[in-house]
Design goal:
Number of helices: 16
Shape: globular
Strand order of the largest sheet: 2-8-7-6-5
Helix content: 40-55%
Oligomer: single chain
Number of domains: 2
Strand content: 5-15%
CATH architecture of the largest domain: 3-Layer(aba) Sandwich
Distance between the termini: 57 Å
Number of strands: 16
Radius of gyration: 21 Å
CATH superfamily of the largest domain: Type I PLP-dependent aspartate aminotransferase-like (Major domain)
Length: 457
């Protein structure tokens, strides 16, 4: 068989892209306060802001929308989703919610109290925000290799088990649970090994703590295990998935990622008492326990997406696309995080613009330049997204200053990917001409979503 890996699908419907000029983009980004979140969709040519809810659904998913049962209680679509989720994840209780952050909000409102500290391999922005919103402190304990974007490690998403054990010993009753994100989005879309999941689960059992898995990109993580972890090459992906989740007390899941859905999420768990608390809270905030704030058609689309995501031909294509982009940028010495992640290409903004100090926000500079030059929308996941200030107002910067270009599932082709690579490569050759940025208006929470910026003074 040919070594060329092509898209394992046919395109039936297309959406025209409005081809803009540099001058237009200069006007649009200025009007947006130099925050790409404020751009209108039609002002973006290739939108890599996120892979959340931006996937192209299959013909089977569109058919499922037509057959969705909109009954308020006991919807047929819920019971179909429940059966698929139980088969996929292996946990008996399935609670639908409208997206992943709703799952986090629902769960953490029951488990996190003021003064609690929550260790993780890497909290993503909404995860950390929901913990903090309930008075908790999200604490990241990644392995040391994760701090070096240029160093190769097959499972950079792993939690540091030695640090985790020390944390559990010292924090004691202040730890309500341990959280692992698979794959580790904030750390570059990096996978977590089965060995590491098992090690974290063993520590949780020893110290009497539940293990929660954020499984938004569970299928990608499972395929990385198949590719990179000894002993799993001959395993089918569904079997790897089930083994990963045998160690979880609770799963939070965004159907907007590894279920190809435009909306939807799940909380899956084993504890019936906790489930009752969550369902009672759900009725107040989202809806009845069999629809969770979703239309029946969206429940049906998510169920079908869970069936499709386990296709190894798709997963092979998906991971290879990001790897292909990474390889071509590395040939041009562009500082990209290695090894390639599952859902996105991550650029090291600090190494891309070494002449810009961290307070001049290299990641924001990179996001703005990529948009101006190519009409490509990316997202900063560094000094703005994960930075904060101390009591005196001084900056506290994160370990990594990254820019993420997240590929929506089944949306863009190899030609789009090649265009993105060329725009980034051309920019890197002219990197010294780029200046820094600073806050004009700094949002109090989730700063990258709503802040505006101006050129550094």
């Amino acid at each position: 068989m040919s070594e060329i890996i092509f898209e394992p699908f046919r395109i039936k419907v297309v959406e025209p892209i409005r081809i803009s000029t540099r001058r237009e983009r200069e006007e649009w980004i200025a009007a947006a306060g130099y925050n790409v979140f404020n751009l209108k969709a039609e002002q973006v040519m290739i939108d890599l802001l996120t892979d959340s809810g931006t996937s192209a659904m299959s013909h089977h998913q569109w058919a499922a929308l037509q057959s969705g049962d909109e009954s308020y209680a006991g919807s047929k679509s819920f019971f179909e989703l429940e059966a698929v989720a139980r088969e996929t994840f292996g946990l008996p209780i399935v609670i639908p919610v409208h997206q992943g952050r709703a799952a986090e909000h629902l769960l953490f409102s029951a488990l996190v109290k003021p003064g609690h500290r929550v260790p993780s391999n890497g909290h993503f922005d909404t995860t950390g925000a929901n913990i903090a919103d309930n008075g908790g402190d999200p604490v990241n304990l990644p392995i040391p290799e994760a701090a070096d974007t240029a160093a190769y490690h097959p499972f950079k998403g792993n939690v540091d088990l030695q640090q985790l054990e020390a944390f559990l010993q010292n924090a004691g009753d202040d730890v309500p649970f341990v959280l692992l994100t698979i794959t580790n989005n904030s750390g570059g879309g990096q996978p977590v090994s089965m060995e590491n999941i098992e090690g974290a689960a063993a520590l949780c059992a020893r110290y009497g703590k539940p293990l929660i898995l954020d499984g938004c990109r569970f299928a990608e993580n499972a395929y990385f295990i198949k590719l990179r972890e000894p002993g799993y090459a001959d395993w089918e992906v569904p079997k790897i998935v089930r083994k990963m989740f045998t160690h979880a007390s609770v799963i939070t899941f965004s159907g907007k990622k590894d279920a190809f859905a435009n909306i939807g999420g799940l909380v899956c768990l084993r504890d019936e008492e906790l489930a009752e608390k969550l369902k009672n809270r759900l009725i107040v905030t989202e809806g009845f326990a069999t629809y969770g704030g979703l239309a029946g058609r969206d429940l049906a689309a998510m169920a079908q997406g869970l069936r499709e995501i386990l296709d190894e031909n798709y997963l092979k294509y998906r991971l290879r696309t990001i790897e292909w982009m990474c390889e071509r940028l590395l040939k041009n010495e562009v500082p990209v995080l290695v090894p390639s992640g599952g859902h996105a290409l991550f650029l090291d903004a600090a190494r891309f613009f070494p002449h810009l100090p961290p307070e001049h926000l290299p990641g924001i500079a990179l996001v703005i330049e990529i948009y101006l030059r190519g009409g490509i929308r990316a997202v900063e996941l560094g000094n703005v997204a994960f930075g904060k200030r101390d009591e005196g107002g001084a900056d506290i910067f994160p370990r990594l200053d990254l820019v993420r270009l997240a590929m929506p599932r089944r949306v863009y082709t190899e030609a789009h990917a090649e265009y993105v690579v060329k725009v980034i490569g051309d920019l890197y050759r002219e990197r010294e001409t780029v200046g820094g940025w600073e806050f004009e208006k700094e949002a109090p929470v989730m700063r990258h979503f709503r802040s505006t910026f101006r050129t550094a003074r």
